[in-house]
Specification:
The structure holds 3 protein chains of 3 kinds. Chain A is an alpha/beta fold. Chain A contains 12 helices and 14 strands. The longest helix of chain A is centred in the first third of the chain and has 30 residues, at 3-32. Classes of the chains: A alpha/beta, B alpha/beta, C mainly alpha. Chains in contact: A-B, A-C, B-C.
Chain lengths: 416, 599, 294
């Protein structure tokens, strides 16, 4: 082609690239003047987070946002944190990992927030926590208990639920193991969705039960996009397990139950993760009459007598109406932990001191009293709940239980 | 000159940017843009040049990421940087595998295969838990170097890879390899007939399009420190790569880079400013649809086209000018063909024996037998539907025969692919010209590959000895002035001349001419005849299919007549002219050859 | 043995639904040589429409197909005129990219309209089954299969018995020839695109009862559908149906006897294998080798 056309073509590309970079450099430099730790004590404290408000985790993300907002409202009404009002800077990562990395980078260097707080789900918290760690900022995550997150030797990472995923079902498994011989299930099936939070959860339960002599007759890990459970249910039905431990989110939890009902397969005991904790929606989805006796574990209960819980539930009801979902409570709890660390250190800049303090101390939250090991793993116990008479009761641990009565097995079709 | 200065300025800006600003947000944006620029530029080689649309190119980023993830987690005492070149190699190997698959498919099925490949990669990553950590993914250690230049190594590594990728892209486009790839995009089976070894070229194209992308993917994975199936093999990654390529300008050098630096910030803005996943989908989807409908060439070529139209407005195009009809004799051709002029007794350079081809129940070629003597100009005539073009198609492997043998220069060739036959010295022009419409006249001629060797592919085609040889041939046929015109702008007669030059580039021993005199004016017909005679005097054999009887009978020393797929007569023009069977089937009772024209 | 029969029944039922959904895709390709990647998105759109009909108007989703068919037909017809017609003579790669873009746009719009949370349609019979000789046949699947067969039969009759159907087939075999005998190929193409979309919409209503879905579910479906039409032979309606049943069986048996994890990988392996071994699929035809490029 002719020389003219050639250089004109080359013109456009470098011009745009150049302009983009020039703009970026100028934009970046303009903010350089402002300093983070300025003494102005009337300046609000800015806490930044990127949450999945759209995409795969949008339902839980919205709940987390609500939790943070409730906390902000309560703190600001009580004079703020360290005498300063709290401002939330929240971005939407659309349940996408690249975006969550960009978002946290933006929060740190463009928005220049004082403090960070975590996002929802292990898959998002994994890369996001790396950004925080690289920048040596405290990172408290409300949801994302996959054991892998804590195996990297991070110094600034803390999980604000009671235990990591593999310990979530411990109470339940130990309770089952402790049942007298004639009541204890002899065989068990473990279908689970392929997720770094759910799968270790199920495995944790399975390890305890196998050690107690409960035989595993079926186990499978199914893909995240599987929606046809007939085959799995058929396979389980032929093995007739006494107990089914189903690692699920919401729609697959519902789907599996409906498939079981269709196939007339109802194991004596049914334990599910996540889905049963979603209240009325769950009951509507599988039919309220089928909920009786289903057991699950959860990090928070509105009725629990944990520190500050009543006020939290009331405030949530005032702002968003209804009872707070688990994810909102987890977010609230994370904010409480962050606030405790900030108060203990007395400023918002010494992130290392905050991390060290958390490692050596306990914090009271709506989830209970939390404490951590050197890698940021919390050392507590989850609540175990059960659907009884169309509502959720908490049966374990006994000191937080809302009822002493436990329904001995799944009884679908009995109530309604 | 100005263009080069601007490229230099942009490169300088990119180079010093991290030194000017330690804003991690913008550094992150540039890093991601670099990753996409590398990937789009790589994709450009197989999609922009060769025309193979791949919706799975993002998988190469993922493969790179997983290589560094797997190796770094297994050998944690070694620096992860060591695995970057390995990632490139692994990716290249997989890409070559995909390339082999592509050999059996094209167009629609190829696109489907690439999508299947991407999803399959994701499934394998999810299920091969022992290697990949399953859906939980792999985590890399945080970088151990000083926090004050946190992102620099990633930034500069990716910048370096981009420079390499663009350089590779530039170099490929200028070589015979690149010409071959673009020819494949234009017309794959025609490309085969001018000596382009299709499988090898495609495989090399795949390798070149993937190696640096895999390396880039590894750096990207290290930057993220977290590698999992969804992030590494998500379909939106591939969509963004394709979008960057299309918007920037597929097939151009800077298009993919420009597109990547346009789309990634747009992506960021959509996510951050307008909040959320659905906006991004709308944006990407809408842009993709819009680009395909409205601006299929991309932004850069559109700008270029606009500028070109403005510059040439009101001027007459070169294409309308009359072709020069005086010829230039081809000394250089003589020097190349010196060895083949023989004085031995005439022998058959081409022997067709019992050749047959059926289309369903129709026997287009039915046990056809004839031969062509070395150094002769032989004619092949017959009524419409007698199978002449089909015979040509069988000889040059545009179609495969159902039976019979073809012997060329002493070797049986009916089982050989088209390019092999071309390398042995067989050239063929087409009744409806088949030039590569998007290439210039010069590029069309240099695309022809005389022989096959890997080193030959690396020869620069757009300048140097190859280009010079092509120009000489163009001068011979009278089309040298048109060397920079796109082939699609030429008239039919001009295209025929260029096609002849293209075939001559192969240094052929035998040229099959399919209706060389058809559809062109009498002056050009005469020029054709002169050129054929001149080439024949240097030793090239010709087999000509023609309906123009004066032309054929004047030019040829021997003529075969085909009827209903079989040879019905053979002889000198005089014999044929008076053969009753031929007159009955074809020439007609009142056929009379015009008296010899006076020069 | 009962177990095997059970899986067989489940696989056949699933295959029937796949057949309905794949038929639209095959038809569009056969007539217009367009691989409509947006077909999966139209499927999910049908599911969402059925959901709205069921939750707002309290009409059974399978009956709601009567409303969904014309609505999705019009949408498909409109999209053809607006977006697809301009590129109908472009190389096939362009149409693939275009329809991919359309799929993303439709996904985004569905997200805006219905949100990204998992949705499913739960009529009463959704958790019930017919029981026969120790086997259970989920009612929703059976009803869905029957509806699928009904729509397919109607489609078949339309194509073979009506003038319009014959015009469609003519346009598919030889567009230029069809123009010459008075068939406006552009109008026919728009019609076919509309019909294909309507078939997807109907299929979507059934799918919505059987499985839960989000806007992003279309990826899973289009992968499956592409595998089916490739297996059956691009352009062959009968091939698509056979391919669908074979596919449903294969998926079910893989999930049962190998592992559910690999059941989702299956479509992609099929695509690879078929395109390598027999590129024209079970019932497709190869293009003429000497087709001259223009």
């Amino acid at each position: 082609m002719s020389q003219h056309a050639r250089w004109r073509r080359r013109l456009s590309a470098p011009i745009v690239v150049g302009l983009v970079l020039l703009a970026a450099a100028c934009g970046g430099n303009a903010d350089k003047g402002g300093d983070k730790g300025a003494a102005a004590s009337t300046k609000p404290i800015r806490i930044g987070a990127s949450i999945p408000l759209t995409g795969q985790f949008s339902q839980q993300g919205k709940a987390a946002q609500e939790g943070y907002k409730v906390w902000q409202a309560m703190v600001n009404a009580n004079g703020g944190l360290l005498g300063r009002q709290v401002e939330l800077v929240i971005k939407d990562d659309a349940s996408d990992q690249n975006t969550v990395v960009s978002d946290y980078n933006a929060l740190i260097s463009k928005d220049k927030v004082d403090l960070l707080i975590g996002t929802y789900s292990s898959l998002l918290n994994l890369p996001a926590s790396a950004v925080a760690e690289k920048n040596k900022m405290l990172y408290i995550e409300p949801a994302g208990g996959a054991p892998k997150i804590f195996e990297r030797g991070f110094q600034y990472l803390f999980f604000s639920q009671q235990a990591t995923a593999d310990k979530q079902g411990k109470s339940f498994a130990e309770w089952i193991s402790s049942l007298p011989e004639d009541q204890r299930p002899k065989t068990a099936a473990y279908p689970t969705i392929d997720d770094p939070f759910v799968a270790p959860n199920v495995k944790g339960i399975r390890d305890v039960l196998e050690a107690a002599g409960v035989k595993t007759v079926y186990s499978t890990t199914y893909a995240v996009d599987l929606s046809n459970f007939d085959t799995i249910v058929s396979a389980m039905r032929s093995k007739q397990p006494d107990l089914v431990v189903h690692g699920a989110f919401f729609d697959d939890g519902v789907g599996m139950i409906r498939a079981m009902l269709k196939a007339n397969f109802t194991p004596h005991w049914l334990y599910q993760t996540t889905a049963p904790s979603l209240g009325d929606e769950y009951a509507k989805a599988i039919g309220a009459e089928n909920t009786q006796g289903i057991i699950f574990a959860i990090s928070h209960a509105p009725q629990a007598k944990t520190p500050g819980n009543a006020e939290f539930v009331a405030k949530y009801g005032e702002m968003f109406s209804g009872l707070p979902p688990e994810d909102a409570a987890d977010a609230f709890g994370a904010a409480e932990v962050l606030a405790a660390a900030v108060k203990a250190v007395g400023n918002t800049t010494d992130q290392k001191a905050m991390a060290d303090w958390l490692r050596g101390n306990k914090v009271d939250t709506v989830l209970g009293t939390l404490s951590w090991d050197k890698d940021g793993r919390p050392q507590g116990e989850f609540l175990t709940g059960q659907w009884q008479n169309n509502k959720v009761e908490y049966i374990l641990p006994q000191n937080f239980a809302t009822t002493g009565q436990i329904v001995m097995g799944w009884e679908p079709g009995s109530k309604g | 000159m100005l263009g080069r200065v601007l490229v230099g300025v942009a490169a300088l800006l990119l180079l010093v940017f991290p030194l000017l600003s330690d804003d991690a947000y913008y550094q992150n944006m540039v890093i991601l843009s670099l990753v996409f620029a590398i990937a789009a530029s790589g994709l450009n080689i197989i999609m922009g040049y060769a025309g193979y649309v791949s919706l799975g190119h993002g998988a190469f980023i993922g493969l790179g990421g997983y290589t560094i993830g797997v190796m770094a987690t297994r050998f944690d005492t070694v620096s992860p940087w060591l695995w970057v070149p390995l990632a490139g190699v692994v990716t290249m190997v997989v890409a070559i595998g995909l390339g082999f698959v592509s050999l059996r498919s094209s167009g629609a099925s190829f696109v489907i295969i690439t999508v299947a490949f991407l999803f399959l990669a994701q499934v394998v990553a999810v299920n091969w838990v022992g290697l990949t950590g399953g859906s939980g993914g792999l985590t890399l250690p945080l970088p151990g170097w000083d926090a004050s230049y946190l992102n620099w190594p990633f930034y500069y590594a990716l910048l370096g890879l981009l420079v390499l990728q663009v350089a590779l892209s530039w170099w490929v486009r200028r070589t015979k390899l690149g010409m071959g790839l673009v020819a494949i995009r234009g017309d794959e089976s025609k490309a085969a007939t001018i000596g382009i070894n299709l499988p090898v070229q495609k495989i090399i194209g795949f390798a070149a399009s993937s190696f640096l992308v895999g390396a880039g993917g590894a750096v990207y994975g290290y930057y993220l420190t977290f590698i999992d199936p969804r992030g590494m093999f998500g379909i939106l990654l591939s969509v963004q790569i394709i979008l960057s390529l299309l918007i920037g300008g597929s097939g151009t050098l800077w298009g993919p880079v420009f597109g990547a630096f346009l789309i990634e910030p747009l992506n960021e803005v959509a996510n951050n400013q307008f909040g959320g996943g659905n906006i991004r989908l709308l944006l990407f989807g809408g842009l993709l649809a819009l680009v395909v409908i409205v601006l299929p060439q991309g932004v850069l070529p559109a700008i270029e086209g606009l500028l070109l139209r403005r510059r040439t407005a009101g001027k007459a195009g070169l294409v309308g000018a009359r072709i020069r009809t005086e010829g230039v004799s081809l000394e250089s051709l003589t020097s190349r063909n010196a060895g083949t002029v023989e004085t031995a007794a005439p022998h058959a350079i081409l022997q067709v024996q019992d050749l047959s081809k059926r289309f369903g129940g129709l026997r287009a070629v039915d046990h056809c037998t004839f031969d062509v003597r070395q150094g002769s100009i032989t004619g092949l005539i017959g009524p419409n539907g007698s199978g002449k073009t089909t015979v040509f198609n069988l000889i040059d492997n545009t179609m495969s025969a159902n039976g019979g043998t073809i012997t060329f220069d002493g070797h049986r060739i009916e089982g050989l692919p088209a390019w092999d036959r071309a390398h042995r010295g067989l050239g063929r022009t087409f009744q409806i010209t088949r030039l590569f419409r998007d290439m210039t006249v010069l590029e069309n001629v240099v695309a022809a590959q005389r022989a096959f060797s890997m080193s030959q592919l690396t020869h620069i085609a757009v300048s140097g000895p190859e280009a010079k040889a092509a120009e000489e041939l163009l001068q011979f046929v009278g089309m040298r002035d048109f060397r920079d015109q796109k082939a699609r702008a030429l008239s039919y007669g001009q295209q025929k001349l260029v096609e002849l030059a293209q075939v001559l580039m192969l240094d052929p021993k035998l040229i099959l001419l399919d209706e060389p005199a058809g559809g062109i004016n009498p002056v050009l017909i005469e020029r054709m005849g002169d050129m054929i005679r001149e080439l024949n005097s240097y030793g090239t054999t010709f087999l000509i299919v023609e309906h123009n009887m004066p032309f054929v009978l004047d030019l040829c020393e021997r003529v075969h007549v085909l009827g209903r797929g079989a040879t019905m007569a053979t002889g000198t023009p005089e014999q044929i002219r008076s053969d009753p069977a031929v007159i009955d089937a074809y020439l007609g009772e009142d056929f009379e050859l015009e008296p010899e024209r006076v020069q | 043995m009962t177990e095997f029969l059970q899986y067989l029944v489940l696989g056949l039922l699933v295959g029937g639904v796949y057949a309905l959904v794949a038929s639209g895709l095959s038809l569009v390709f056969g007539v217009m040589k367009i691989i409509n990647i947006a077909h999966g998105a139209f499927l999910i759109l049908g599911a969402f429409l059925a959901y709205t009909i069921w939750s707002r108007l309290d009409i059974d989703p399978l009956l709601g197909i009567v409303i969904i068919l014309p609505v999705t037909f019009v949408i498909g017809w409109g999209i053809y005129w607006a977006a697809v017609r301009p590129v109908r003579s472009a190389p096939i790669a362009s149409t693939v990219l275009l329809t991919f873009g359309i799929a993303l746009v439709v996904e985004a719009l569905m997200g805006f309209a219905w949100g990204n949370n998992a949705t499913s349609i739960r009529p009463g019979y959704g958790s019930e089954s017919f029981h026969l000789a120790g086997l259970y046949m989920p009612k929703a699947q059976v009803y869905g299969g029957l509806v699928a067969i009904g729509v397919l039969v109607a489609l078949g009759l339309f194509l073979t018995r009506t003038w319009l159907g014959r015009a469609i087939r003519a346009a598919a075999i030889n567009p230029t020839g069809a123009e010459l005998i008075g068939i406006k190929v552009v109008t026919v193409s728009a019609l076919v695109f509309g019909i294909g979309t309507a078939a997807a919409g109907a299929g979507g209503a059934i799918i919505g009862v059987l499985y839960s879905f989000v806007p992003g579910t279309h990826y899973v479906w289009i992968a499956r559908l592409l595998a089916i039409v490739v297996l059956g032979g691009l352009g062959s309606l009968n091939g698509a149906m056979i391919g669908a049943v074979v596919f449903g069986l294969a998926e079910t048996f893989t999930a049962a006897y190998v592992s559910p994890a690999w059941a989702t990988a299956f479509p992609y392996l099929i695509v690879f294998a078929v395109l390598l071994i027999r590129p024209q699929g079970l019932m497709g035809s190869r293009l003429r080798e000497d087709a001259v490029a223009t």
